[in-house]
Amino acid sequence: MPIKRKSGRKADEIRPISAKVGIIPNADGSAEYISGKTKAIAAVYGPKKMHPQHAQNPAKGTLRCTYNMLSFSVSDRIRPGPNRRATEISKITEWALAPIVMLDDYPSMVVDVHIHMTQADAGTRCAGINAAAMALAHAGIPMKNMVSSIAAGKLDKTVVLDLDKYEDSEFEEGEGSTDIPITFTDDGKITHIQVDGKINKKQLMEAVEMARKTSKDIYEVQKKALKEVGEK
Ligand code: CDP
Questions:
Q1: Tally of CA atoms within 13 A in the half-sphere of 179 that contains its CB
Q2: pTM surpassing 0.85?
Q3: Where does ligand 1 bind, in terms of residues with CB under 6 Å?
Q4: What's the pLDDT at 2?
Q5: If DSSP codes are grouped into helix, strand and coil, which group holds residue 13?
Q6: DSSP assignment of 44-97, as one string?
Q7: How far apart are CA 107 and CA 72, in angstroms?
Q8: For residue 76, how far is the Cα from the chain centroid?
Q9: Please, what is the average pLDDT of the chain?
Q10: Alpha carbon separation from 82 to 21, 71, 129, 156 (Å, rounded)
Q11: Residue 213 contacts by C-beta under 8 Å, 6 or more apart in sequence?
Q12: Closest-lying ligand 1 atom to the alpha carbon of residue 89
């Protein structure tokens, strides 16, 4: 029997999504990505000279991402400032975006991507990556592709998409929950995948294919939001 989700969603049904580009006029590029109760905003500044100087890469520009969950984004107030989790997600975001961003023409420079979660209900790294990719395009940073990120997962024995906070942290039936955030290029290649929990190879393949299919719908939402604001 497939699992009955508390939210009533079907196994491959993601939360309602929306996107908006150009939300922060002072930034070189900006975007918002909303997935259910998870809301991410991203602001891009640059390319600009990298400081401190010792961090400069004379061969090409550097993509620097900073992920942050605002203190009011969850019901238990989060202590502001960097922590291990935020540092890890910042790096993962850089790695997810690095294959598509072309910074060869910007030696010693940096493109700063600031990602803030105004509301967090799981899936924040994916929402942040989606917002960041749109903000980079809006800033006119040369890119090979767009990327779209979504978590697949498993609840007990059923492969599902897009775990919410309850499913991610509180679901304990049978085998419990597995969270598998994945980022795809618009031609379906993976730039980032993580597996938090247990899953066998067959179900992992099923989860990846489910996420790959839905990443195309996310891409359409991102593309539409970019078209609506036009080139900067
Ligand atoms: O958000 P994401 O699924 O990418 O990452 P996670 O580390 O698996 O966190 C899942 C969820 O737990 C977050 O989206 C928040 O809703 C919540 N969380 C929290 O309430 N307090 C924290 N310090 C960290 C996470």
A1: 18
A2: yes
A3: 74, 78, 85, 120-125, 165, 168-169, 179
A4: 76
A5: coil
A6: EEEEEE-SSGGG--TTS-EEEEEEEE-TTSSSSPPPPS--HHHHHHHHHHHHHH
A7: 38
A8: 23
A9: 96
A10: 26, 11, 18, 33
A11: 12
A12: 4
